[in-house]
């Protein structure tokens, strides 16, 4: 069957499933809209959290980032999973006990301050919007590539589908849809990985195949890969080539940022009990780990396959010829992806072959001169195409390619829906009901939540169509904000009875402003090119890159809040009692019944 | 329920468990995964790419199990 028809069938069937679930799980009350009526089983909630958390970045980008760098980019694997330990031990059970709907609501109540709530709303909206833009752009690209519609049409189809299930279903619709999306995305991620692992190592479990032996030679796969890439002048795959400080701080920033992202925290409001909130964080990580343990195998095996395709006789032999690339079915993926502009090659020295090597490495100069190479001829390989192109690179059947397309869309759409829900609840619950029109009825709050959601989708679609050109950098900003403002405020609100309103607001503002200014100093003010005073190659402070700065921002937040709180009056007695009650699981059901 | 002595003891026990869990949470990825890489590159590669994720899972499930038991010991579970 034609690949194009297969793509339509897989994507169409998965979308029909999501919409069917949304119709079945319509939300009737604010409790169902914001927290799915707190009736979600911890295993299902864990699965939904997994889909919510694993975005286009995890599904599409991460394995590519690891493939071309190796060990150094393990930071993504450790950072994006380690945050769940912080969530499970320091936030989830207490926020569930608190028994309200949103992150700003907790910050506002605990720090008895509408200013604190407002600061939290602003942080939440900025972090979520920047994140959503990336998802919508990803949806557009995936549609463009697989359904061969133009980017705009693809994005509008995606927006319409999210609209259908998020606006009507609220958290309830989103949760059950995300469960289905999780199943689609994990199947789509692991099936090609299993095929490739079997081809290369004979082991059906990719995570084990990574540390196994190469089929045929009996050499360990990683040792073979190290030899292969170093022969071509690239850095060794399994050892470190970047500095320790940034690796530690970047991992820590991703961990703290993960635990501070509101759409993830919100998920723990949906489980029935405090004990379930603890289990639910564990189940979420189980479902995330299924993908994250496979991702390093996907990366290493793809690097292996790609390098071998360019050097079919090994790195000491002859490179692949242009003629082979243009005619052999094994290289058809290169033609397909060249059309997208994300992959390109050029026969610079006119020898009819494409030499792929590291032309910046001095050790290869001698060989390059001898063989009259004039530079790396694989001129562009966008890392984001690796996972999507992987089944084609390994010559897997057409239905696997279509499945991966549906999986990438599931990852992007489920995260987009979770973020939009976080934005709409912040607007309708924290801004409208909390500050502007406190006497709003439940029916009109539900209506305003739906309108806020529709507006948020419209804004995200507009920004996805006209991306500000800095989607990649803004991810650093989203994590920086979540790490430097939201996580420390939540944690101190639970673990300290002494931190007061002035301290919390001062801490959030200092953490937020210093982090954002540090990022702008390195990436340009509001990401406008050439307005930066420093670069990440030569950073301002102790050699810390702007992407690693979130952890420093969090530290500043903690320090400022504690100093200011100790210099001002302790929180009133009822707030100290609130903290006491949040720390004790008993009575959690009663808090939920208020709504 | 403010300042009941048994609640303070419950909270102190919780803090002890959380502290130990976080010590392991920090040592495995940052110690074995990153800092000790020059000494044990092979182990560090495995810890950084897979081992730390398995340890995080173990920590969370241990904590959930231990805390649910602690809740019952102090009679603060949700019943």
Care to describe what's here?
The complex is a heterodimer of chains A (595) and B (79). With 595 residues, chain A is mainly alpha-helical. Chain A has helices at 3-24, 30-35, 42-53, 56-69, 74-98, 103-110, 114-146, 151-201, 206-209, 221-231, 244-260, 262-265, 274-310, 322-327, 332-338, 365-370, 386-393, 398-436, 442-465, 471-495, 501-523, 550-567, 573-583, 588-593; strands at residues 320-321, 343-344, 353-354, 380-381. In chain A, the strands form two sheets. In chain A, strands 1-3 form a two-stranded antiparallel sheet. In chain A, strands 2-4 form a two-stranded antiparallel sheet. The radius of gyration of chain A is 25 Å and the shape is globular. With 79 residues, chain B is an all-alpha fold. Chain B has one domain (5-73). The longest helix of chain B has 33 residues, at 41-73. Chain B is elongated and about 50 Å long. Chain B starts with a helix and ends in a 6-residue tail after the last helix. At the A-B interface, helix 5, helix 11, helix 13 and helix 23 of A face helix 1 and helix 2 of B.
Head-to-tail CA distance between termini of chain A:
53 Å
Q: What is the largest interface, and how many residues per chain?
A: A-B, 50 and 44 residues
Rg over C-alpha atoms of chain B, rounded to the nearest angstrom: 17 Å
List low-confidence stretches of chain B.
none
Task: Let me know the average pLDDT of chain B.
Answer: 90
**Strand fraction band of chain A?**
under 5%
CATH architectural label of chain A: Up-down Bundle
CATH superfamily of chain A: Sodium/glucose cotransporter
- Helical stretch tally of chain A: 24
Number of domains of chain A: 1
Secondary-structure-derived class of chain A: mainly alpha
């Amino acid at each position: 069957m034609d690949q194009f028809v297969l793509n339509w069938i897989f994507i169409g069937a998965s979308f029909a499933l999501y919409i069917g679930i949304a119709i079945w799980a319509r939300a009737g009350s604010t409790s169902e809209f914001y927290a799915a009526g707190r009736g979600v089983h911890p295993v299902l909630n864990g699965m939904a959290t997994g889909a919510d958390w694993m975005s286009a970045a995890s599904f599409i980008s991460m394995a590519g980032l690891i493939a071309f760098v190796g060990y150094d980019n393990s930071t993504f694997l450790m950072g994006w999973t380690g945050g769940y330990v912080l969530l499970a031990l320091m936030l989830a059970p207490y926020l569930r006990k608190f028994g309200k709907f949103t992150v700003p609501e907790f910050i506002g109540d605990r720090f008895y301050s509408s200013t604190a709530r407002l600061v939290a709303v602003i942080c939440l909206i900025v972090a979520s919007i920047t994140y959503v833009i990336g998802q919508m752009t990803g949806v557009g690209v995936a549609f463009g590539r697989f359904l061969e519609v133009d980017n705009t049409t693809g994005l509008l189809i995606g927006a319409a589908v999210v609209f259908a299930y998020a606006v009507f279903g609220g958290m309830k619709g989103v949760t059950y849809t995300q469960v289905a999306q999780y199943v689609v995305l994990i199947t789509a991620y692991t099936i090609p990985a299993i095929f490739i692992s079997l081809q290369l190592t004979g082991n059906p479990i990719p995570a084990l195949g990574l540390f196994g032996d190469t089929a045929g030679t009996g050499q360990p796969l990683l040792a073979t890969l190290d030899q292969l890439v170093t022969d071509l002048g690239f850095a060794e795959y399994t050892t470190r080539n970047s500095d320790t400080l940034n690796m530690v701080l970047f991992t820590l920033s991703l961990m703290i940022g993960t635990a501070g992202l509101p759409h993830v925290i919100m998920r723990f409001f949906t489980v029935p009990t405090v004990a379930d909130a603890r289990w639910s964080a564990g189940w979420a990580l189980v479902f995330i780990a299924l993908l994250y343990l496979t991702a390093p195998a996907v990366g290493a095996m793809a690097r292996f396959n790609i390098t071998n395709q360019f050097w079919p006789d090994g790195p000491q032999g002859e490179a692949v010829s242009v003629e082979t690339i243009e005619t052999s079915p094994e290289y058809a993926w290169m033609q397909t992806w060249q059309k997208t502009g994300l992959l390109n090659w050029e026969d610079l020295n006119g020898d009819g072959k494409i030499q792929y090597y590291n032309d910046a490495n001095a050790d290869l100069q001698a060989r390059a001169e001898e063989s009259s190479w004039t530079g790396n001829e694989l001129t562009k390989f966008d890392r984001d195409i690796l996972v999507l192109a992987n089944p084609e690179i390994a010559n897997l059947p057409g239905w696997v390619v279509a499945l991966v397309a549906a999986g990438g869309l599931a990852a992007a759409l489920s995260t987009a829906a979770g973020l939009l829900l976080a934005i709409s609840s912040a607007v309708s619950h924290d801004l409208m009901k909390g500050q502007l029109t406190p006497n709003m009825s439940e029916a009109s709050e539900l209506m305003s939540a739906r309108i806020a959601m529709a507006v948020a989708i419209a804004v995200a679609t507009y920004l996805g169509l006209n991306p500000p050109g800095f989607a990649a950098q803004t991810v650093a900003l989203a994590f920086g904000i979540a790490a430097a403002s939201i996580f420390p405020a939540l944690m101190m609100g639970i673990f300290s009875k002494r931190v007061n309103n002035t301290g919390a607001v001062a801490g959030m503002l200092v953490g937020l402003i210093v982090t954002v200014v540090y990022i702008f100093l390195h990436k340009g003010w509001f990401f406008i090119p050439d307005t930066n005073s420093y670069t990440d190659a030569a950073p301002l402070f102790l050699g810390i890159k702007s992407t690693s700065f979130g952890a420093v921002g969090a530290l500043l937040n903690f320090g400022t809040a504690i100093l200011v709180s100790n210099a001002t009056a302790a929180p009133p007695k009822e707030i100290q009692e609130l903290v006491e009650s949040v720390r004790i699981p008993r009575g959690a059901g009663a808090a939920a019944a208020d709504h | 329920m403010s300042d009941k002595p048994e609640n303070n003891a419950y909270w102190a026990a919780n803090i002890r468990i959380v502290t130990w869990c976080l010590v392991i949470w920090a040592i495995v990825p940052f110690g074995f995964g990153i800092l000790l890489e020059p000494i044990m590159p092979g182990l560090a590669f495995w810890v950084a790419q897979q081992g730390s994720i398995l340890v995080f899972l173990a920590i969370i499930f241990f904590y959930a199990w231990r805390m649910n038991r602690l809740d019952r010991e102090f009679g603060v579970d949700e019943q």
